[in-house]
Design a protein that fits this description.
The protein has 638 residues and is of the alpha+beta class. It has four domains: 3-154, no CATH class; 202-493, no CATH class; 501-543, no CATH class; 559-637, no CATH class. The strands form five sheets. It has an eight-stranded antiparallel sheet with strand order 7-8-12-15-9-2-21-20. Strands 11-3-19-22-23-16 form a six-stranded antiparallel sheet. The protein has a four-stranded antiparallel sheet with strand order 6-13-14-10, with no helix packed on it. Helix 4 (53-74) packs antiparallel against helix 5, helix 10 crosses helix 13 (409-422) and helix 17 (559-573) packs parallel to helix 20.
Length: 638
């Protein structure tokens, strides 16, 4: 068996298991058996004998028992199948004897990549999948030649590379052409959302600090036009504080009205709105983030709901990356109405109320008092994520204001809300994200978990006014290389993972312009556009099929036979009859009166010797064979 064929089998077996492991969703203990694949394929490549049948049988039975146990205990049949495929590859690496065994490896490897695609959509997995696809096509083509025993007389590298590239090109065409539909394997997504405990109806005081230690990307945002910073990506509002827990008491959620393809939250001038194309990573929250105040939402596969407190929600948590377009009228003030819930105070806030009165003694209006509290907190306290537990018998807010005097955004925002409420000014906490970094390579904004933020909204003169009492802190910036890699990831997620029907129509529109632009130009804009899209796609597919057919016909012959066919074609081009059944002797007779008869005779000798004698043609003879053909072609043209 050719060594290249064996290498491809080993490569596919290992790549399938690696594709599963890099998703990060495979149990390390259950996948540990896959390590045995490495020595198994090493033995296979060295030509050592397969393991005894009884050993393979016992391992298979044990694997089945472990699979049943795994699926029952974990309760996840899908992941259990993933674990089973890794163990199968390990066993099979010691039991490769017949050609059918290789096909089993290919099938299981393909199954592994399908499972992995459900567990991960990362750029790294995408690269692994492309390499796997080309190797799989190469292995299948190679297996065909090996089966028909052509490996000795046919140069396989060129046809395999050509077929692999054409298969990849056809895959791209089908990817673009197939209708876009959101679905998950077995009706369930296995991609786990990142933990965002600060964005829920109940938030433990201090939980935001845990989020801010995580540099993971939460969302990437493309702005239609750039409003003036700072950027406050508004999320959830919280109004009830127990001393240790913030809660949102606006529990009722209402469906928003959909007009065309847009959910409308309020009337607005679209020309004045800031468009935000937001690519949200899978998180354990259903909140829609965006600049204040969101007036419209475009989103596929989700309904949009609101709780009446300017918070917006998807109809369900996004198990996959969610894409939506938000239209915002950017401002720090939004209309509001008084409600007693925004004056609630937990017991034991007397000291907080007293300090609030002292700070605002010179303020004449509610807005001036709010500004004084905001300034006081910014100037007299230090920012720190390293916050110790409050002193015994003292609540966290009192400890922050009077003892530790250091904390992060939650401490500042909570303290300001309680002081405002102590003065009779309705107020609430808003949890979201602040700022973000601009990726100069992609022109979009990256928002991370570490950008999580809490700020304050105070109701003054029936308007919710934003205040941010947290002191500004310098942030470290990623390297240019890191930003470049992120831009690659963004493009992968945008144009591959997040490829949409809108993108499909745009591409088909450009393709249509290449084929039918003269006709389309004479037609009214938009008339029969779907027909032209179909025509252009059909023409493109016909071209691809034609090229594939020509290449397949050309490459199914070896070097020796192909050169002979080129000679026959040259003779026919010179005006002589050269039917498919012509023999080498008849070819010589066609040129008997020409000066190239000697070259033709030598060419035919080499052809018969290596074509029918099955003798491999060395480099020197191949060069001479090609040189003779070149000389003959020149002679026929004279």
């Amino acid at each position: 068996m050719p060594r290249t064929y064996k290498f491809l089998t080993a490569f596919l077996g290992l790549t399938g298991s690696i594709g599963l492991v890099i998703t990060g969703e495979i149990n390390p203990v259950m996948a540990a058996g896959g390590i045995a694949t490495i020595p198994g394929y090493y033995r296979f490549l060295k030509g050592r004998a397969a393991a005894p049948g009884w050993v393979v049988g016992v391992c298979s039975v044990l694997t089945l028992a472990v699979f049943l146990f795994d699926s029952l205990v974990s309760g996840d049949f899908f992941i259990a199948v993933a674990h089973l495929t890794i163990t199968f590859q390990a066993i099979k690496s010691y039991d490769l004897k017949e050609p059918w065994d290789h096909l089993q490896v290919y099938f299981v490897s393909l199954l592994q990549m399908v499972i992995a695609s459900e567990l991960s959509q990362s750029l790294v997995f995408g690269a692994v999948f492309i390499i796997f696809l080309m190797a799989l096509v190469a292995a299948m083509v190679f297996s065909h030649f090996v089966k028909n025993r052509h490996e000795g007389g046919v140069g396989l590298m060129k046809p395999i590379m050509m077929i692999s590239l054409l298969s990849l090109a056809l895959t791209v065409v089908l990817f673009i052409a197939l209708p876009r539909k959101t679905f998950t394997f077995l009706g369930k997504s296995h991609v786990k959302g990142m933990r965002t405990s600060g964005f829920a109806d109940r938030v433990n005081f201090g939980s935001m600090g845990e989020i801010k230690l995580d540099p993971s990307v939460v969302m990437r945002i493309e702005l239609g036009r750039d409003p003036s910073p700072p950027y406050y990506w508004r999320g959830m509002t919280l109004d009830y504080f127990t001393g240790t827990l913030w809660r949102n008491t606006t529990s009722d959620r209402y469906r928003t009205v959909k007009v065309g393809d847009e959910y409308v939250i309020g009337s607005y001038d679209k020309k004045a709105a800031v468009e935000q194309s937001i690519y949200l990573e899978p998180i354990d929250s259903d909140i829609i983030f965006g600049l204040t105040e969101i007036k419209g939402i475009k989103v596929d596969s989700f309904l949009v709901r609101t709780d009446g407190a300017h918070a917006l929600f998807l109809s369900r948590k996004a198990a996959r990356r969610a894409f939506y377009t938000a239209y915002s009228i950017v401002r720090s003030v939004v209309p509001g109405v008084k409600d007693s819930r925004y004056l609630q105070l937990p017991a034991g806030m007397e000291r907080v109320q007293r300090i609030a009165r002292n700070i605002t003694s010179k303020g004449r209006t509610d807005k001036e008092r709010a500004v004084l509290i905001e300034r006081y907190l910014k100037e007299n306290y230090s920012y720190s994520l390293a916050v110790s537990s409050p002193r015994e018998g003292i609540d966290a807010v009192t400890d922050f204001l009077f003892y530790s005097k250091k904390g992060f955004c939650e401490h500042y925002a909570t303290s300001m809300v309680l002081m405002l409420r102590g003065l009779g000014i309705p107020s609430r906490i808003v949890n979201g994200f602040y700022g973000g970094e601009t990726n100069k390579y992609g022109g979009y904004i990256i928002v991370r978990q570490s950008d999580a933020h809490s700020w304050v909204e105070a109701l003054i003169n029936n308007e919710w006014i934003r205040f941010d009492p947290t002191p500004s802190v310098p942030k470290s910036h990623p390297t240019g290389f890191a930003l470049f890699l992120d831009s690659l990831k963004m493009n992968w997620e945008r144009y591959v993972v997040g490829f949409r029907g809108e993108d499909q129509r745009t591409i088909l529109k450009y393709l249509a312009a290449l084929f039918v632009y003269p006709v389309a130009y004479a037609m009214k804009a938009g008339e029969m556009k779907d027909l032209w899209y179909l025509v252009s796609l059909s023409l493109l597919l016909v071209c691809i099929i034609y090229v594939v057919r020509k290449v397949m016909v050309k490459k199914k012959y070896g070097f020796v036979s192909q050169k002979y066919l080129d000679l026959r074609k040259a003779i026919a081009g010179a005006g002589a009859s050269a039917p498919f059944s012509i023999t080498p002797g008849e070819v010589i007779s066609k040129v008997r009166s020409l000066s190239i008869e000697g070259e033709v005779r030598e060419f035919m000798r080499l052809y018969e010797e290596h074509r029918f004698g099955r003798k491999p043609m060395g480099p020197g003879e191949r060069k001479r064979y090609g040189s003779l053909l070149h000389t003959i072609k020149r002679g026929l043209k004279k």
